């Protein structure tokens, strides 16, 4: 796919972190970008900065996502690239010690289901709505490519850290979607890939750096090379390469500095 001003893109979770860096990189390449997020003030400011459009979208709500795509398409035309970074997720061990009540307790089924909804179901929701619009559009090139969908998974889907049964399970479900979805969409020329980030310097992690610098330093030391957290710009760079490289399809791409989490 040629990344230029003929392409419209949607980035979910585009107001901060990995999504914001992707928005900025796409805009710098001339792409018409729509930002999907619930943080309206920050999102509107970023959209103004990059010449894009902000859509107040809750990925947990079908009508909200549909309305976001309608607004984005009215402003920029049919999106040919979607980078899905937004999620809703919780943590907690399957069974863990409750210090307050001096007993073990289990993670709630409701909490687990919400994480699966906010990661796996939301990924399908965004991808399938985008794919329908792309499928009904003209091919972009001689390969018959109509679009590219990039989902965001996590190394937690493969490394299985403690306390991440819901998060890791949800991201694992995203991994398992990529190949069958790419095969579902091969006849209409839509590629599907996922990026599996390691530990990145996003706003939550920068909060850890401010409040608990020793913990942050240990996270940096855990990365084989380079010994630091990933930069959102590095995620954005990979997203752009996936979009540009038409032969990259149905792949799970770890971006993690070589880190492999081990159980304690």
TrEMBL record:
Superkingdom assignment: Bacteria
PANTHER family, per the entry: 17-BETA-HYDROXYSTEROID DEHYDROGENASE 14-RELATED, SHORT-CHAIN DEHYDROGENASE/REDUCTASE
Protein name: SDR family oxidoreductase
Keywords from the UniProt entry: Oxidoreductase
Signal peptide (from-to): none
Originating organism: Novosphingobium aquae
């Amino acid at each position: 796919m040629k990344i230029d001003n003929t392409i419209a893109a949607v980035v979910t979770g585009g107001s901060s972190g990995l999504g914001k860096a992707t928005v900025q990189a796409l805009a710098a390449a001339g792409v018409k970008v729509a930002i999907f997020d619930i943080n309206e003030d920050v999102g509107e400011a970023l959209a103004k900065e990059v010449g894009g459009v902000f859509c107040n979208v809750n990925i947990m709500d079908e009508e909200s996502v549909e309305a976001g795509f309608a607004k984005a398409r009215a402003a920029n035309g049919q999106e040919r690239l979607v980078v899905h970074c937004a999620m809703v997720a919780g943590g907690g061990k399957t069974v863990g010690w409750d210090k307050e009540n001096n007993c073990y307790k289990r993670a709630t089924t409701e909490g687990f289901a919400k994480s699966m909804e906010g990661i796996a179901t939301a990924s399908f929701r965004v991808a399938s709505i985008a794919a329908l619009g792309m499928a009904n559009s003209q091919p972009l090139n001689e390969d018959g490519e109509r679009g590219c969908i990039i989902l965001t998974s996590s190394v937690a889907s493969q490394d299985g850290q403690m306390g991440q049964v819901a998060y890791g399970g949800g991201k694992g479900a995203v991994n398992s979607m990529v190949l069958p979805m790419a095969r579902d969409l091969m006849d209409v020329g839509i590629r599907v890939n996922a990026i599996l980030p390691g530990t990145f310097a996003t706003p939550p992690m920068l909060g850890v750096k401010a409040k608990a610098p020793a913990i942050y330093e240990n996270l940096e030391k855990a990365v084989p090379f380079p010994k630091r957290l990933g930069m959102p710009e590095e995620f954005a760079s990979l997203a752009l390469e996936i979009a540009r490289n038409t032969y990259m399809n149905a792949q799970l791409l770890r971006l993690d500095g070589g880190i492999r989490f081990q159980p304690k």
